[in-house]
Give the backbone structure.
Amino acid sequence: MMNAINGSERFVEAMEKSHRLRDAEKHVEAQAGFGRKSAPAAFTIALSREAGARGTLVAQAIGERLGWPVYDRELLQRVADEMGLRASLLEGVDEKQKSWLQECIESFLARGTVSETAYVRHLLETLLAVTARGQCVIVGRGTPHILPQATTLRVRLVGNLEDRIEAIRASLQLSHAEAARWVDKKDRERTQFVKDHFHKDPASPGDYDLILNSSRFSVSECADLIVEALLRLQARTQVVRSEPVGV
């Protein structure tokens, strides 16, 4: 377990270093561009969600409004492609504990094992690649706890338990009892994934810029509120330079 944690921390540090270097390059470019208004910062929206809180639907609505790509299953597919595996196998690895990984993945892959450390390593590398230029929406995978705060709008979607159960019941055509078990299982898996690899509690409100209750707001309303928050953050990053540096 210690090796898995150390591996995750090293790649988190690598991502942060890359973002710092990118920010430094932008600063040098900005100094040469005095006298004009800078473009809005290249933000990423990182969306965490409780099971059944309609996170994917909200992310898709945001993507449509902004013309941004949304990475949910798509992100998982990119990780799978880089590892040379089918996404259907990696779905069992994502946001689950190592005991399940060892039991199922080792039995399915004739070529050997896919350790959780390897998955997280590829996940972090993929996140770094897809967020390098911003302007994308990432759903889940602990991204609000990984990406740099300065250029990330960190959002958490929650909802009343019964509403979330009903959403899953209708979506997956399950009985109420089956949907309740599904929601409970997913919530526990996602929480454990973030705690194990990023040492954070996904339910901690202090780690988010915006928390929305999807029981109170529709998918469209949630998307509108998130886009409005994004525009306000972007506006704060615009700087007007009226004279060259050093004058």
About this structure: The chain has nine helices and five strands. The two ends are 55 Å apart (CA to CA).
